[in-house]
Amino acid sequence: MNPAYPFFAKYGKSVLAAGFLVYAAVVAQLSGDGRVDKAEAVTIAIAVCSALLVYVVPMAPQWRWGKSTIMAVSAGLVIAAQLIVDGALDTNDWYLVIGAVVAAFGVTIAPAVSPTPNGSQVPDVVVPLGADVA
Asked: What is the pLDDT of residues 56-106, one digit of tens each?
């Protein structure tokens, strides 16, 4: 890791996406009946995929909003999963939906750096703290 970038400045978007994964797993286990039902399992799977995608997908200068889009789509999938599997949103489902929306906004404003290979003439893609949709 380049010492010029502190950990959160480089991985902020990934940290928040992973935070949603932990949140989804904890809420699914501790809320309601104390077990993970089908809709909650789908939400956890969505959170796993979104956390991995936010980490793996690099930011390109022309698509600085790519990681934010991944989390926004994930938030939409969480809502869809709850409605399709359960047929309605109960109080526990709302915790997951609100968490997904907050995570999407968090990833949008979190900083991140996508470094370029050593020796490359292209500078690192840096998104500072604040909205990455400029």
From this structure: 988 777 777 888 899 999 999 999 998 999 888 888 889 999 999 999 999
Give the tokens for residue 4. Answer: 């010029």
Query: The pTM is what?
Result: 0.85
Angle at CA 21, nearest 5°, toward 16 and 40? 145
Cα gap 113→59, rounded to integer Å: 8
Would you give the distance in Å from CA 90 to the centre of its chain? 23
- Rounded CA-CA distance 33/38 in Å is 13
Q: Which domain holds residue 111?
A: 7-127
Contact 12, 110 (CB under 8 A): yes
Domain count of the fold of the chain:
1
